Amino acid sequence: MDHPFHIHVNSFQFISRNGQPESLPAWRDTVLVRRGETVRIRIPFRDFAGKTVYNCHILDHEDLGMMGNLMIDA
Fold this sequence. Notes:
Layout: E1 3-7, E2 12-17, E3 20-21, E4 27-28, E5 30-33, E6 39-42, E7 50-56, H1 59-63, E8 67-72
Antiparallel strand pairs: 1-5, 1-7, 2-3, 2-4, 2-6, 7-8
């Protein structure tokens, strides 16, 4: 199943999918990760320090544990 991966607070650039460069590295807060693939993102941590979360935006997946904490140190 595909997963809309989301990071709270900080936008990111989606830079590659399965090792292939992304042609439109626009700023986003969600990227679709398809079954069996790997995506690479780049995140600048400029204006927020502390704990935030990342998760799958399918509510059932989030409820079943597809989420985690991200600690940003200043």
